[in-house]
Amino acid sequence: MPLDPISAAIVSSLIGSAVESALTPAAPRPATGLVRHLPAEAKRGVMGMPADGRVQIDGQTYLLSPGVVIRNEYNMAIPSMLVSAPVLVRYQTDAMGAVSRVWILSAAEAQLAEAQK
After folding, report:
1. pLDDT band of 35, cuts 50, 70, 90
2. Which residues lie closer than 8 Å to 87 by C-beta, 6 or more apart?
3. How far apart are CA 99 and CA 63, in angstroms?
4. What is the mean pLDDT of the chain?
5. pTM for the complete prediction?
6. Which of 11, 19, 54, 110 has the CB geometry, 3.0–4.6 Å to 105, for a possible disulfide?
């Protein structure tokens, strides 16, 4: 049974849109859209994988504070065991010198940190 002209136009339009969207490359997603305002006193460094309550940052070994908070590039708190490779970070230490807060930098934040050297 043939379609009426209006239904045919609608079906044709839907098929055309589906084909066009399938052939058009997706636009790159923004990094996070999140702008973090990290404390000015937070130091910058390359952090290795935490192990046994310790972490190396720029070759220096630090204790991890019992309440250490590590935030990933999406600003989500993560357990230290999820850091599986050296990463560029900003970090703070507590009064005893143990690392208490860590922010893993996104690619955009890392570029900004390199520009501010």
Report:
1. low
2. 46, 47, 104, 105
3. 6
4. 84
5. 0.69
6. 110
